[in-house]
């Protein structure tokens, strides 16, 4: 039974998305049928999929929410922060609130609010980075001394190979020029 319900839910979801631009009212009907099916069947939907569903389809009318087309999006700052004389002051006793995004459906004007999950800030320790940079400069000085001590024979052989390649290419170009000049006139000779 659940396989049939999941198949029907998938069909309604895909059909609502396919008809979103060409027939918004049919898409809204299919979206509301999808919402009703999810509520009636009490399917266990992962939180991530449920958040995506709330972003895509209006919970009241079933309208497919396309930003700028069928819905408006607004950022809502956290409630714990207030501004006093252009300075942000955090309320001491309240837990830190997350910022959220408000989706406003253009069809029924329902507002759907979704909180954004904030990631913890990375802490960079400067003391370790100073030690690492000092160690890197010491090793780079040692490598510079090694490079000075290396014989230049490696570079000399690569330069010889490069000259040989250039000589081969020059010879090929000279050969092509001599062949082209002996063929006579061409259509491109008369083009201006």
UniProtKB/TrEMBL annotation:
Residues 131-142 have a biased composition (Polar residues). One of its GO terms (cellular component) is nucleolar ribonuclease P complex. Pfam families: Rpr2. Residues 116-192 are annotated as: Disordered. GO terms for biological process: tRNA processing. Transmembrane segments: none annotated. This is RNAse P Rpr2/Rpp21/SNM1 subunit domain-containing protein. It comes from Ampelomyces quisqualis (Powdery mildew agent).
């Amino acid at each position: 039974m659940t396989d049939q319900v999941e198949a029907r839910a998938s069909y309604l979801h895909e059909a609502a998305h396919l008809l979103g631009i060409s027939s918004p009212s049919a898409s809204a009907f299919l979206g509301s049928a999808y919402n009703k099916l999810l509520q009636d069947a009490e399917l266990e939907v992962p939180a991530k999929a449920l958040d995506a569903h709330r972003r895509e389809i209006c919970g009241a009318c079933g309208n497919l929410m396309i930003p700028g087309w069928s819905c408006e999006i607004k950022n809502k700052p956290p409630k714990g922060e207030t501004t006093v004389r252009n300075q942000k002051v955090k309320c001491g006793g309240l837990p830190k609130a997350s910022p959220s995004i408000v989706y406003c459906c253009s069809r029924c004007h329902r507002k759907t609010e979704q909180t954004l999950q904030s990631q913890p800030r990375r802490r960079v320790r400067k003391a370790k980075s100073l030690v690492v940079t000092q160690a890197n400069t010491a090793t780079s000085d040692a490598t510079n001394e090694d490079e000075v001590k290396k014989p230049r024979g490696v570079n000399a052989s690569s330069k010889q190979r490069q000259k040989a390649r250039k000589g081969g290419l020059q010879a090929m170009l000279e050969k092509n020029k001599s062949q082209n000049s002996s063929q006579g006139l061409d259509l491109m000779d008369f083009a201006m």
